[in-house]
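=== Given protein ===
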Amino acid sequence: MNPEHFAILEEARRSLPDGFKVELSGDTIVMMVSPSGIHQRNLLVVRRQFDAHAPAGLLPSENTDLISPNVGKSRNPDLTYLPDDALTTRDNQVPAEVAAIAVELVSPSNPENDWVGKVRDYPLMRIPLYLVIDAREKAVTLFSRPDGTKYHRREDIAFGEAIHIPEPFDFELVTTGLLPY
């Protein structure tokens, strides 16, 4: 995407009212409403486990814009882990390629954003791991091994099982505490 075109879309995205989570995917502006209590609870259950295994120098961040102007993408994962120095900005934007993982809890009102748009966008944005928690389906999916165009590995489990989260975290994510919608 032309960087000037991306800048125009980014300016439009920033001018939208507060209370919405807003992302860019090519020429599309994606708006979402604030999450539910179950969404927030499930995010906390997952985040506590990641926090316990995050290596020194990686910090958790919720609602930070990961931007890739060269591919025309600006996404805002529910949770990501970023190098400490990436968060020393007054802005809410960081280059997507510095993210260690993107974690998304599927929205019941817009599941295709997480299952289609972000599965397409995150490998283009050079995000090495993408964890999808779908409380509608009681399932967790980990995408990994991106090549810059797509993820080459997908692992699916049901709530109640554990899934291995690879380096730099290297732990078993336990899903027994997750609640379905």
Summary: The longest helix spans residues 37-53. The longest strand covers residues 139-146.
